[in-house]
TrEMBL record:
Keyword Protein biosynthesis: no
Source organism of the structure: Pontibacillus yanchengensis Y32
PANTHER family assigned: OCTANOYL-[GCVH]:PROTEIN N-OCTANOYLTRANSFERASE (PTHR43679:SF2), OCTANOYLTRANSFERASE LIPM-RELATED (PTHR43679)
Protein name: Octanoyltransferase
Alphabetical UniProt keywords: Transferase
Classification of source organism: Bacteria, Bacillati, Bacillota, Bacilli, Bacillales
Domain BPL/LPL catalytic: 32-242
Listed GO biological process terms: protein lipoylation
Presence of the UniProt keyword Repeat in the record: no
Pfam families: LplA-B_cat (PF21948)
One annotated GO molecular function: transferase activity
Amino acid sequence: MKPTWYFIDSGHASPAFNMALDEALLKWHSQGDIPPVIRFYGWEPAALSVGYFQKLKGKIDVDAVHKHGFELVRRPTGGRAVLHDKELTYSVIVSENYETMPPSVTDAYRVISQGLLEGFQELDIQAEFSIPEGKLQQTGSAVCFDEPSWYELIVEGRKAAGSAQTRQKGVILQHGSIPIEVDDVTLFDLFIYPNERVKERARKAFGGKAAAINEVAGREIDLPEVKDAFKRGFEKGLDIHLEPFTLTDEQFQEVYTLMEERYQSKEWTYSR
């Protein structure tokens, strides 16, 4: 009999709520209140999320973020900046001691990413794992989709999903972005470059590095179809059964409190 995990489709919500809910789910799982969780969500308004350790000064054009109508939020996970707009965002919350979860971060990425791989296959998209040759070269770019890391998903050599992970209280939180469409012109407005020529060169170089579902599928795929495919993908890839879960009023209140105290806090967002 397959293990039962909870499944939450929380729809589109504010960036601060999205990050607070992921953190709350990690806490509840660490306390044994809930089993492992797969969560799908979207962003309203669209947002630029930055990694826990990522510096804003000299890297992110905060004025441009707000001028485009986006919000800025800092994730509890590492990694680089991601523009969350026309995409499916997923999160996986599971104990480090879960029987099929390897102890190393890289190997845990591989296991969780198997669900993503199966999801792409459900859409007839031939994705594969990124396995960089030798040591992963860091370009210094602040943009997440500029280069794939170990076991991220690539299609035709281009990054098709970007993920980040943290481990707290004995629990793994991995969440990531699966773009349905990519607007690289707007994306590069949000970062600071020495001049327009350098920005344009970076944008053109990026054009061959990111793969959006609608582009590589060769047809228009709507969000419900993407969700169904990746839900089946996670069930198959992790060999689990997903059971729908709805938060209680008390749990929602805990998320709202965390949202206000941390993820809407300028001190949290701008501290680095």
